[in-house]
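=== Structure Prediction Worksheet ===
Name of assembly: unnamed complex
Input type: mixed (protein and possibly other molecules)
Chain count: two
Listed entries:
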Amino acid sequence: IAGITQAPTSQILAAGRRMTLRCTQDMRHNAMYWYRQDLGLGLRLIHYSNTAGTTGKGEVPDGYSVSRANTDDFPLTLASAVPSQTSVYFCASSEQGSYNEQFFGPGTRLTVL
Amino acid sequence: SQQGEEDPQALSIQEGENATMNCSYKTSINNLQWYRQNSGRGLVHLILIRSNEREKHSGRLRVTLDTSKKSSSLLITASRAADTASYFCATERQAGTALIFGKGTTLSVSS
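=== Predicted Assembly ===
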């Protein structure tokens, strides 16, 4: 089934731990994105990648890192989780750049204690 | 910083009524997109309107764009309970990079 998958669905994590959120798409889209969604703040862009091998910083990149080794995968890593990173994380992809519609994954609900 | 801001923040209507949501943005755009999010789900693309378009239709959805006022509206006609969701407008952060989403309008349609 074409689309974007994210894993895990939800996770409770102790502060200070390292965590990688996984995102895979099978639509061969060039561009991929990571957002966090917090109540009252809407969606905020963390990092993006316009094509495999390149990444860029979004609005709220601090404390997060990404890599784009191939077209399909775009993992998001929290090197040392803090409670303020408690959020719902969405991965998205688009064919080429922001002038095309984005397709979103189902999200990962992360709680950092 | 937010590029698009939706108004109202929340809207409650009865089935069969029309729902209108507005979006204002700050800088010039190439296109503006509207998305829908059901509770606990990811966003789903509804419609994209380009800067040289003034109006676009898709089923019961009608989107207008006024670039002189830097605003857009989303009209849902003959609302159904299934239209209950949050609706977001999105514009480009910088050309060819990523979208900036507004905080959304929460629509509640009661039967």
